Amino acid sequence: MKYIPTIGLEVHVQLNTNSKLFSTAATSFGDDPNTHTTAVCLGLPGALPVLNREAVKKAVLAGLAIDGTIHKRSRFDRKNYFYPDLPKGYQISQLYEPYCTSGHLNVTRENGETITIGITRIHMEEDAGKLIHSENSAIRESYVDLNRAGTPLIEIVSDPVIDTPDDAVAYMNTLKNILEYIGVSDCNMEQGSLRVDANVSIRPEGTEKLGTRVEIKNLNSFKAMKAAIEYEMERQEDLIERGGKVVQETRLWNAATGVTLSMRSKEEAHDYRYFPDPDLVPLVLTDAEIEAIRAELPELPEQRKKRFLSQYELPEYDAALLTSQRSYADYFESAAIGVPPKKAANWILSEMLKETGERNCTLEQLFPATYLSELISEIESGRISGKIGKQVFSKMLENPKPPKQIIQEEGLVQISDTSELEKIIEEVIAADPTSVEDYRAGKERAFKALMGQAMKLSRGKANPQLITELLTARLKQDN
Predict the structure, then answer these.
(1) What pLDDT, on the 0 to 100 scale, is given for residue 465?
(2) Pairwise CA distance, residues 457 & 296, whole Å
(3) Mean pLDDT of the chain
(4) What is the helix, strand, coil percentage profile of the chain, to 5?
(5) What is the pLDDT of residue 299?
């Protein structure tokens, strides 16, 4: 029997505000443990939460970017549970009245096909702290870091309509790209700014009723997410085929062993005893406030790709890759000012991205976009050849300097002076009469040998087009 998977994703996104959702404590990452806490973060008696206006703005911006319905009235609820890194004993979230519902993403598969995946809801909530476990030979110890407690999150819940692990990855790539474009999060999965829970179920082919779903928690990379979903599909199918029954539960992904492990039986909403937070009034937004935030929406990836195709006349592949990250697109547009856009795209895609991958850095960290534009201009003007351009590029990587400065310091200006090139040609002809005779006898390869010698003699600085013309004319003079 064949089984059809159904996948739904719950994506937790840390908003990049300076302070937490309900307190003035900082949200910076990597500082000493428990240095960014207040009475509100610690849940001390009498401490009252105050909603962060910037977090609301960024949350609404995310909702508008996925074409969701922004509700003018939403409400915060208390989700009650005990965990060591949740000192209040509850998390402030939005269950009954989220601020955003009914969005969607247009997702492009690897084969170029575009599908639409619905988004059920987005709600705001505060993050919990972090537990750090360590072991030594004598005792196992656990530590609590509350720096993250209270960090503003949005949880983006997809419709349960994703059919394959590959589509799940494509959805996440699209979503992450949009969130980075609109600047609401750095989406750094290694630091926990973007975390994914995957709900997976299978049903027999030909049936409509969905199977029992299993939630896989805290997947911190797309690779892990895909592997965990694939494993869970196989586990459920094998369980059913052996006569077992899938139970609703929460499981964890063990990357070392490549399996999911049972964590706890799946809770329902009533298990958390949700009720409206008595310390927070409902969030009320006006039409004018929502439209003001909408006006701040930047050009989104899909729109930018279409513009790159029309404005810069780039191939589909180039436009898609350049707009796959906002930093790529911004760098390209800065570098393409005053130079052929295709040339800028070629340098970025064929040379620079390889370097950023090897060096684990950004394009801008290699050198400014204005340097690339200047390098292309120097080649296009004929001041240097393409071959010399590669040398200049290498030197820019070693020590970022303006190309003109490198060309001047290294003496790399292309030789285009006719009299100087003629002297080089005469020297080459005098040094290799055999190749001259071979060329005059109709052996075209001899011309390439003479050209190679001329370029070598000029240390690669001779204008290739001009020296080709001069050498051809000189060889025909006595023929």
Answers:
(1) 74
(2) 58
(3) 92
(4) 40, 20, 35
(5) 95
- Which of 385, 410, 435 is at the close of a domain? 410
Q: Are 207 and 303 part of one and the same domain?
A: no
Do residue 174 and residue 315 come from a single domain?
A: no
Half-sphere exposure at residue 339, Cβ-oriented, CA atoms within 13 angstroms: 24
Say how many C-beta atoms besides its own lie within 10 A of residue 163's C-beta.
Answer: 13
In this predicted model, what pLDDT tens digit does every residue of 295-318 receive, in sequence order?
999 999 999 999 999 999 999 999
Domain extent for 444: 418-477
Same domain, 328 and 393: yes
Q: Do both 141 and 93 map to the same domain?
A: yes
Spacing of C-alpha 13 from chain mean position: 14
Q: State whether 259 and 371 are in the same domain.
A: no
| Cα torsion 247, 252, 253, 255: sign | negative
Predicted local confidence at residue 12, as pLDDT? 97
- At 458, is the pLDDT very low, low, confident or very high (cuts 50, 70, 90)? confident
Beta strands 114-126; 100-108: pairing state: antiparallel
Residues 130 and 244 reside in one and the same domain: yes
The tally of domains found in the chain comes to 3
pTM: 0.84
Going through 146-292 in order, the beta strands assigned E by DSSP cover 152-158, 194-204, 214-219, 249-254, 259-265, 275-276, 283-284
What pLDDT, in 10s, does the model give residues 233-252?
999 999 999 999 999 999 99
Is the domain of 337 the same as that of 202?
A: no
> pLDDT for 84-113, tens place per residue?
899 999 999 999 999 999 999 999 998 889
Q: Residues 33, 145: contact at Cβ < 8 Å?
A: yes
Q: Do 360 and 271 share a structural domain?
A: no
CATH of the domain at 459: 1.10.10.410
Of 375, 410, 445, the residue at which a domain comes to its end is 410
Q: DSSP characters for 255-270?
A: TTTTEEEEEEEPP-GG
Distance CA 443, CA 411 (A): 35
Structure tokens at 300: 């989104």
Does residue 478 surpass a pLDDT of 70?
A: no
Query: Reading across the β-sheet that carries 249-254, which strands appear in turn?
Result: 69-70, 100-108, 114-126, 152-158, 3-14, 194-204, 214-219, 249-254, 259-265
Q: What is the CA radius of gyration of the chain?
A: 31
pLDDT digits (tens, 9 = 90+) for 433-444: 888 777 777 777
The angle subtended at Cα 156 by Cα 151 and Cα 296, nearest 5°, is: 75
